[in-house]
Amino acid sequence: MRHLTQRQLRPLLHAMDRRERDLRARIGEERERTTSEGYAQLEGMVGDDADKAFVETSVDFESVMIDRQLKELGDIEAARARVAEGTFGQCIDCAGPIEYERLRAYPPAVRCAECQTLHENPGARPTT
User: Which pLDDT tens digit goes with each residue over 47-103?
Assistant: First the structure.
């Protein structure tokens, strides 16, 4: 965390707090909606097989969204652990600093932009 000042860190932590609250609210709403609407429709309120397939696909999509949101909650929790350890803002691959603008865009980021590119596209070559 050497490269981040307290002035830089504070808004990142606040952003993670806000995002966590938002994610928890969304997850709760989506779980309730999926359970009450999706499965209720599958239990006889849906007409033909095409309608049932559509409802099943919708329920599956909602489940994928919930899983994605749960992963992001895990990312936020891991970022808080890195803050406590003093490694927040340090790339897990090259140990260099993660760009502040990148952290502003996604505070739980674990890699600098270059290492993230290599992670997403292993065939890419470093620009250095």
Answer: 677 766 766 666 677 788 899 999 999 999 999 999 999 999 999 999 999 999 999
Cα 7 to the center of its chain, rounded Å? 24
Summarize the confidence of residues 114-125 as an average pLDDT.
88
- Give the 3-state DSSP-derived string for the chain, with helices as H, strands as E and coil as C: CCCCCHHHHHHHHHHHHHHHHHHHHHHHHHHHHHHHHHHHHHHHHCCCHHHHHHHHHHHHHHHHHHHHHHHHHHHHHHHHHHHHHCCCCECCCCCCECCHHHHHHCCCCCCCHHHHHHHHCCCCCCCC
The domains located in the chain, with CATH, are 6-120 (1.20.120.910)
Quickly count: other Cβ atoms within 10 Å of residue 38's Cβ.
19
